[in-house]
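Example record

The entry below shows one chain as it appears in the dataset: sequence first, then structure tokens.
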Amino acid sequence: MRLTWSAYDGTRITLRQAKTGERVSVTVHSRLKAKLDAEPRDAVTIVTGMRRRPLTIDGFRTLFQRERAKLGLDGVTYHGLRHTV
């Protein structure tokens, strides 16, 4: 939720894992790249709410549950996103 635009270089996202502190660099999928490149960079963080302010964990969880229900993804959980990705 706290990932900033400076972590994205146009092809990779680089971050430090919260649990281990290890630095990780992940290649961005072409569909995600297209979405990120089309987003306005008018906020510090990549993930924002409707008012372009950083999205909280609770806010993300709510949005995730709505989308999951809409798409019929009963087996996908918020905490299982890392494993799904």
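Notes for this example: The radius of gyration is 14 Å. Residues 44 and 53 are 9 Å apart (CA to CA).
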